[in-house]
Design goal:
six-stranded antiparallel β-barrel; 3 helices; six-stranded antiparallel sheet; Jelly Rolls; 571 residues; Neuraminidase; mainly beta; 4 domains; single chain
């Protein structure tokens, strides 16, 4: 039974909906059945609108025609406002005839922003930032088209903690980067895309040099090969020099296996490679062209035949390896020739692992079950309620696809794609079992396939790009909470609720609250009333006029600065 005050069958008592801090219940028969884009932490006991998200990439992929002016090197773009395509945005050009001299098809160029309808192009981001444009010597012939280099699904995000630069790896094999203080991701140009599906990233920071001279290298895992690029400073990032095919892995070019990688506490990179775990260890200052500076081991650990390593996580001195084929986690001390006693998980295919306070959370299978381990056995922790991920009533074999995983201020943050419309996004699971759908990508509800969190303002990877938190809250009623389903009466004695009251903690200048209801868990919600912040009111009241009810479920939709405490329906 929901924790809020429960009406008897004559509906003679008020229905008071509160206790938002309890999160989502296992079903609408036990409490709140949906909490999306809401904040239950800032003021426990009250419900606030969550931080809104915005795209780290351009909002809309560009494909437009252009003309070129040889006298000024300016391209005039037809029918498109170019203000969203900032300096450094990667583009390509093509033509039905001959491109303007100075430009070539199938080549990445970088925008120099000029006006809302005009740009110039540069050959590198460094030149774009310097305003050094390509010299265009004629207008060409035919119809010319310019298009953005578009991201695929972002699968991995890693951060250079000393340079505070985040790197993104997408399903097209491209690598992108985000500098400190920026809200726009740029292309790390020039890596090989053949047989690459965005399977892993890791970096080494030189631990043999003095702080001022430390070099850093990014390792990019293709399906069968490892590429490497120096990322020490702005010069190396804006004009990158890649070593393609630096090392060969065990899996074939068409395998598409996970190459999830991490840089361990021992400063060694470990990565998944089919039934093997590989490693990269720096010996002296790393130089990809000098084998004396590193030890590359392609088969540091063998897993059982047919097993596929899917994810890695550290737990003490052990490396925990998630098996994709069988239902085992393989602990490895990183030194022995074999793993320790495998830890069985009651699911087929273990997808993600995350250590939070020496407790490893496990995302496994396709039913939405979450487990934990301290290194010797597995405990069941939480099941994503069917109401959130598959409320159609139709039996489905695979209602859940897991996304990215990380820790945000000591709580588990993970991505989910479910079958219920609108409920795919980033979820939070608190140590005490409370669950909330925290955010959706800026592009709309969808799986959050990669996550990076430094604080409350985390970064999400998803299909066609990535999103970040803004300093504003959701608008257009995007914060949503559903109460439990309450029994009001029976068929012979119907319930009636005449008055709606909404109580907030303090007056606010901006925001809206919209209250709706329905008589069962499958019908659409009908709006009872909408309230607008006026800077003075802390309570709102309306005629509800609800009659002939057996059951009721309440929907709260919010935006702006409201701090909602209670929704009351009075007889």
């Amino acid at each position: 039974m929901p924790s809020q005050i429960y009406l008897n069958h004559m509906a003679t008592q008020p229905l008071i909906i509160k206790d938002w801090e309890k999160g989502v219940a296992d079903s609408p028969h036990f409490g709140n059945s949906l909490m999306r884009n809401v904040d239950i932490e800032a003021f426990p006991g009250a419900l606030k609108v969550q931080k809104a998200t915005a795209s780290l990439f351009f909002a809309t992929a560009l494909s437009a025609t252009f003309t070129a002016d040889a006298a000024t090197d300016i391209l005039t773009i037809s029918g498109t406002n170019m203000t969203d395509y900032t300096t450094g945005t990667a583009v390509t050009v093509s033509s039905t005839g001959t491109l303007p001299t100075g430009l070539s098809a199938s080549t990445n160029y970088f925008i120099i922003a000029v006006s809302s309808s005009t740009i110039k192009l540069a050959t590198t981001i460094a030149l774009a930032n310097a305003g050094t444009a390509i010299n265009i010597t004629d207008a060409g012939s035919g119809t010319h088209t310019i298009a953005t280099v578009n991201p695929g699904t972002v699968n991995h995000i890693v951060r250079d903690t000393h340079g505070d630069i985040k790197f993104f790896h997408d399903s097209n094999g491209r690598v992108w980067y985000l500098t400190s203080g920026s809200t726009r991701v740029l292309l790390l140009n020039g890596n090989t895309l053949t047989n690459s599906s965005g399977q892993g990233l890791a970096f080494i920071r030189d631990n043999n040099a003095t702080e001022i001279s430390k070099k850093k290298y990014l390792f990019v895992f293709r399906n069968a090969l490892i590429d490497v690029v120096e990322i020490t400073g702005t010069t190396q990032i804006e004009t990158p020099s890649w070593t393609s095919g630096w090392q060969t892995m065990n899996t074939g070019s068409g395998a598409g296996n996970s190459h999830h990688a991490l840089t361990g506490q021992d400063f060694i990179i470990y990565y998944c490679d089919g039934r093997y775990i590989g490693s990269i260890k720096e010996l002296t200052t790393f130089d990809p062209a000098n084998s004396a500076t590193f030890t590359y081991t392609s088969q540091a650990l063998d897993l059982p035949q047919l097993e596929i390593a899917n994810w890695l996580e550290e737990l003490g001195t052990n490396l925990e390896i998630a098996g994709d084929t069988f239902n085992f986690i393989y602990p490895w001390d990183r030194l022995s020739n074999s793993y320790n006693l495998p830890i069985p998980v009651p699911e087929t295919s273990i997808k993600r692992l995350k250590n939070i306070g020496n407790l490893v959370y496990i995302l496994a299978g396709t039913k939405g079950n979450i487990y934990t381990t301290q290194g010797s056995y597995v405990n069941f922790a939480k099941k994503l309620p069917d109401y959130l991920v598959n409320n159609s009533g139709t039996l489905q074999a695979n209602p859940v696809t897991w996304g990215g995983i990380t820790s945000r201020n000591g709580v588990l943050l993970f991505g989910v794609a479910g079958l219920t419309s609108g409920n795919s996004g980033a979820y939070i699971l608190y140590p005490d079992g409370r669950l909330v759908m925290d955010n959706i990508p800026s592009s709309g509800s969808g799986n959050v396939t990669a996550l990076y969190a430094q604080n409350d303002f985390y970064i999400m990877g998803h299909a066609s790009g990535g999103s970040y938190h803004t300093s504003t809250r959701y608008a257009s009623y995007e914060a949503v909470a559903h109460s439990g389903l309450y029994r009001l009466s029976d068929k012979t004695r119907k319930g009636a609720l005449s008055t709606l009251e909404v109580q907030v903690a303090k007056p606010v200048a901006t925001g809206h609250i919209r209250i709706g209801y329905r008589a069962d868990t499958s019908s659409s919600f009908t709006t009872i009333d909408t309230y607008t912040a006026d800077g003075t009111a802390i309570s709102f009241e309306s005629d509800a006029g609800l009659i002939d009810l057996e059951n009721i479920q309440v929907q709260v939709e919010m935006d702006g600065l409201f701090e909602l405490m209670e929704v009351r329906l009075l007889p």
